Amino acid sequence: MNDTIAAISTTAGKGAIAIIRISGKDAIKIVNKIFKEKNLEKVPTHTIHYGHIEYNKKIEDEVLVSIMRAPKTFTTEDVVEINCHGNILVTKKILEILLTIGCRLAEPGEFTKRAFLNGRIDLIEAEGIMNLINSKSEKERELALNELGGKVSNLIKELRQKILEILANIEVKIDYPEYEDIEDITHEQLSKNIKEIENEIKKILKESQTGKLIEQGIKTAIVGRPNVGKSSLLNKLLDEEKAIVTEIEGTTRDTVEGTITINGIILDLIDTAGIRKTDDIVENIGVNKSLEIIEKSDLVLLILNNNEELTEYDQKLIEKIKNKQHIIVINKIDLPSKINLKLENEKNIVKISALNQTGIENLKQKIIEMYNLEQLEGKDLTYLTNARSLALLNQSLELINDIKTSIKLNQPIDMIEIDIKKIWELLGEITGETYQEELINQLFSQFCLGK
Ligand SMILES: Nc1nc2c(ncn2[C@@H]2O[C@H](COP(=O)(O)OP(=O)(O)OP(=O)(O)O)[C@@H](O)[C@H]2O)c(=O)[nH]1
Ligand SMILES: [Mg+2]
């Protein structure tokens, strides 16, 4: 942490401008050595300076240099940003010079890591930065901004505060038994307190499921026998002729993918090869892949042909998707109905004609209902999304179950207190208030270089 780090903070492609970022106690001194026009060590903080980078009497580029002195900077250290021309040869050259005259190349995520270690942001905010950089939809961007802005952190901090109060109550009685006016915390009281904490954790976990949808989208597989109209449906949903449609069975042999957004949620659509028994080697590989895709997807759209009786393969597929989130789509309703489908208790059936483009909106509406996407509009997106945090919340719930058992068994309060403390620590790992160095290194290494 004592050295001064540098990295190119913009992407490697061509652009009008690229930014090289330098952070550390010698940041200004080092850049000053190659800035031609003026003495940057003398300029006020948070100012921008026009000039040239010169090294070994050679001008390398015309630049704007931002000087930001500690502590009001991203890392809380002295930070300099060089805006140069956006060509990889130019940026690399300037970076090389910086590395020769005293900077060390930053590791991926090291700027953000310093911001965290110096206490400017917590782990949820750091992860928010990463999520913002990686966000693919408008909703995901909003969610990341809430993480970044500390809203999500506050949720956890409030929960920890409540636990701390319970702990304080217990401790006071243990440390000062002579104070008669402090009431003993009873098992009954404790049980009530723990129930409250449990409810809050469960609420965050439940809402986080939606967060996961926003972040990861819904992997949607379109499956069915050959020729039922899977590719036709994909094309209609995407509003482009992405997959080949013919009257020949087995047209789609490998998967075709596309993406649509419904109420801000990304649907990753995968059109698959029609499922049947075949001797064609290529088609057979496609069929097996289709079966695999069913396993891996979040939502299955099983397409059946309204104009044909169900076959053995249709039945097999209905059986296969029974325990998955699914919608049965009966296609070709423009043709006479010959389908003999009896499905009691099946709520999710939609009838369409991919050819005439009828029922497509109903299908979308069904998906909106299934995932409560309606409610997502205007909803406060304050919840945790990453697997690390969710695992910690689940561990906390397990401990709560242990505590509930201990209370039932009337175990001494100071024994139970140990588990309560553990929950407090686990929740601290979410925000990074309690952390292990190894975890921190691993986490920040997932960041982009220069961030
Ligand atoms: N009448 C009618 N024909 C349709 C409809 N949807 C698709 N078809 C026709 O059915 C045939 C097969 O359509 P595809 O979309 O290629 O079917 P698929 O399920 O992708 O078939 P494979 O890729 O072979 O598994 C084509 O001739 C389509 O024009 C529909 O709603 N009504
Ligand atoms: Mg097809």
Note the topology:
Layout: E1 5-8, E2 15-23, H1 27-34, E3 47-55, E4 58-68, E5 79-86, H2 88-100, E6 104-105, H3 110-117, H4 123-134, H5 138-148, H6 151-175, H7 187-216, E7 218-224, H8 230-238, E8 256-262, E9 265-271, H9 281-296, E10 299-305, H10 312-321, E11 326-331, E12 349-351, H11 360-370, H12 373-376, H13 387-408, H14 413-431, H15 437-444
Parallel strand pairs: 1-6, 7-9, 7-10, 10-11, 11-12
Antiparallel strand pairs: 1-2, 2-5, 3-4, 4-5, 8-9
Helix pairs in contact: 4-5, 6-7, 6-14, 7-13, 13-14
This protein binds guanosine-5'-triphosphate (GTP) and magnesium ion.
Residues 224, 226-232, 245-247, 249-252, 273-274, 331-332, 334-335, 353-355 line the site of guanosine-5'-triphosphate.
Question: Can you walk through the features of this model?
Answer:
- The protein has 451 residues and is an alpha/beta fold.
- It has 15 helices and twelve strands.
- It has helices at 27-34, 88-100, 110-117, 123-134, 138-148, 151-175, 187-216, 230-238, 281-296, 312-321, 360-370, 373-376, 387-408, 413-431, 437-444; strands at residues 5-8, 15-23, 47-55, 58-68, 79-86, 104-105, 218-224, 256-262, 265-271, 299-305, 326-331, 349-351.
- It has a six-stranded mixed beta sheet, with helices on one face. It has a six-stranded mixed beta sheet with strand order 8-9-7-10-11-12, with helices on both faces.
- Helix 6 (151-175) runs antiparallel to helix 7 (187-216).
- The longest helix is centred in the middle third of the chain and has 30 residues, at 187-216.
- It is flat and about 85 Å long.
- The mean pLDDT is 89.
- Residues 230-231, 243, 251-252, 271 line the site of magnesium ion.
